[in-house]
Design a protein that fits this description.
Chains A, B: It holds the Pfam family Aminotran_5. The structure is a homodimer. By secondary structure, chain A is an alpha/beta fold. Chain A is 43% helix and 15% strand. In chain A, the strands form 4 sheets. The first copy, chain A, has a 7-stranded mixed β-sheet with strand order 2-10-9-8-5-3-4, sandwiched between helices. The mean pLDDT of chain A is 96.
Chain lengths: 384, 384
């Protein structure tokens, strides 16, 4: 067969798994209360700290990222308390939904999808609502591919308010700089299946001393998502409930890869992938959904031409073994998204660009085959 | 080295992982919203049904077993509602703790650890509290090794009450018969790292139509553990939040093994392991914690002699590469527990018995080396 059933998975998570991570996950099982497990749990928590940019030890949860978004809500916000959610897409909206479910008074700063908020709009919402208990941000809004500038937005909260800052960094942490302590972030949530290159099933939260002081007074009913249980157990090198040990084996190996490459280099690689992908898409005259400044190094969203169904492109690519993401909610059929985070380098993206060219040509879009790849190679050659 | 660092993991979960399951979990990652993922999710849910003994499709959660114990509570019980928890050890007590956290009025039927409840005691508690909304049982109480007779206890609830029956079957389902529909059970919770032979991180719940009618009216705040979201998504072959795909690959392979062996044969094997282990322990004159009738086919708990510290035995075994469990809470140091569920056969238990003999001898217990193994072989020879 000319095209085999090899899969080139280029969605914004889960990402492909590196071979050394696969091998680590295939180690024989160990008892989750053993000394070996404790050593492992302490080690991975310690080594996650630089990615969060904090002196606090990140907590480990067995669950999807959403479970820890919910933990960030249920441990800090009591019913009737006022919060602000900066909504830049599907995942900002998810924070708002969780908060509504728990009886918070939810103020929203809705931003046009594909854009980041104007800092002045944030300031005026903060001034308008002086009693906010927390402000919720999404660092990379996976649904649109924007990277919200937490380094600018979070200090504004500190300037105008006593509110906690809670950040969903699930689809960015590990791929882009994050300085939780320096930026005044109180809770940062991340997940396993994105830049950390392991399968879904683990999620992480780092919590500031200010947030702990609120959490200690919180009396919402909670059990599995009770952050205090995780802190207490982590101090003893364990988790309150049976953890996904095989995924922790994987995390250990993934952190080894990230450490060997070096954090700065990892961020540089992701930045390069963004530049390369954007240059290639521009060469095809397809409209990028985000500006250069707002774009995330982990995922690139692209509009099709007018009246064009991006699902046709995705379906063509699928036949070539290449899996990209479509649009969510009202963007379904309107955009496609290329994930370039985690276990991914330029040579993983070049074939995606070739496949896009072939599909467009097949759909009678005028183009010279090789146009996007040429533009990508031009970016790439600056790095070699 | 005479004794290598090979590990013989014989705790009551997590269990060792079969090679075909390891291999399945090492398959390349796929998108969790792909058709392949949907086919897989539908398939494993369908194939779990016979183990639950129900026509309802079991729901798949990414989390520890406790997350779904909490789901069973938060989706059915409103604050102030009265429930009965049959507590036979640590995990029954966990149900009570979760229920207390969520404001239920908790009635307890506390049973001496190591025993199952007297059906008459259950009947009298049911008659004493006519307004119970649910009765909570633990099938195998992992902390003591009893198997509560849900086939007898659950129909009693139906006879005397309108309460839902909710069963934690985490450390037994897949190893022993369970007939959810026939026994009048409304919610059954199970986990991945026990008889299903995969790492921790997946958990399951099957829900009766009667329970759904209660769940539909329930208005507790909930998001990640909202059972309705899981039902709605499962009908479309997916999960509401990113699932632990690698573990689902593993579950698929584990179900293949269980199907190839045959459910009856799987149960028969576990029953044999119980008989073999108990015969061996009795031959050593160590007191078993449970009667023949109350004992679980998945785990055997053993008391030491008076004044004896079971942690010394565990530590000796550890040096021989054999990992068994100790006692929890007030039983720490008093008992040890041998897990014999999941990927385990008699020849995995014989070395554990040898190691126990060697440790006892070292501790100046009078015995002839080989005594326990001989008794185990006698049981085993009846099966060969």
């Amino acid at each position: 067969m000319f095209i085999t059933n090899k899969i080139n998975l280029r969605i914004p998570g889960p990402t492909p798994i590196p071979p050394s991570v696969q091998a680590a996950m295939s180690q024989p099982m160990i008892g989750h209360r053993s000394n070996e497990a404790s050593t492992l749990i302490k080690s991975v928590s310690e080594r996650l700290k630089p990615f969060f940019g904090t002196t606090e030890n990140p907590l480990l949860f067995t669950g999807s990222g959403t479970s820890v978004l919910e933990a960030a809500v249920v441990n800090t916000i009591q019913p009737g308390e006022e919060v602000l959610v900066v909504v830049t897409g599907v995942f900002g909206d998810r924070f708002a939904k969780i908060l509504t479910e728990y009886g918070a008074v939810v103020r929203r700063l809705d931003v046009e999808w594909g854009k980041t908020p104007d800092p002045e709009d944030l300031t005026s919402r903060l001034q308008q609502h002086p009693n906010l208990k927390a402000v919720f941000f999404t660092q990379c809004e996976t649904s649109t591919g924007v990277l919200n500038p937490i380094n600018i937005l979070s200090p504004l909260v500190k300037k105008h308010s006593d509110a906690l800052v809670i950040v969903d960094a699930v689809s960015s942490l590990g791929a882009v700089p994050f300085e939780m302590d320096a930026w005044n972030v109180d809770i940062t949530v991340a997940g396993s299946q994105k830049a950390f290159m392991i399968p879904a099933g683990l999620a992480f939260a780092a919590v500031s001393p200010k947030a702990w002081s609120i959490i200690e007074k919180n009396n919402n009913p909670k059990f599995y998502l009770d952050l205090k249980r995780y802190r207490e157990n982590l101090s003893k090198g364990t988790t309150p409930f049976t953890p996904a040990v095989s995924l922790i084996f994987g995390l250990d190996a993934a952190l080894e890869l990230l450490e060997a490459e070096g954090m700065t280099e990892v961020f540089h690689r992701h930045e390069g992938m963004k530049n390369l992908t954007r240059a290639a898409i521009s060469a095809l005259s397809l409209p990028l959904m985000t500006s250069e400044e707002d774009a995330s190094p982990t995922v690139t969203s692209v509009y099709g031409a007018d009246g064009w169904d991006s699902e046709i492109l995705r379906s063509d690519l699928k036949k070539m073994g290449i899996v990209i993401a479509g649009g969510q909610q009202h963007l379904k059929g309107k955009i496609f998204r290329i994930g370039h985070m985690g276990y991914c380098d330029p040579f993983d993206i070049l074939p995606v660009l070739s496949a896009i060219e072939i599909s467009l040509k097949k759909q009678n879009v005028e183009l010279r085959l090789g146009t996007a790849v040429q533009a990508a190679e031009e970016v790439l050659s600056q790095y070699v």
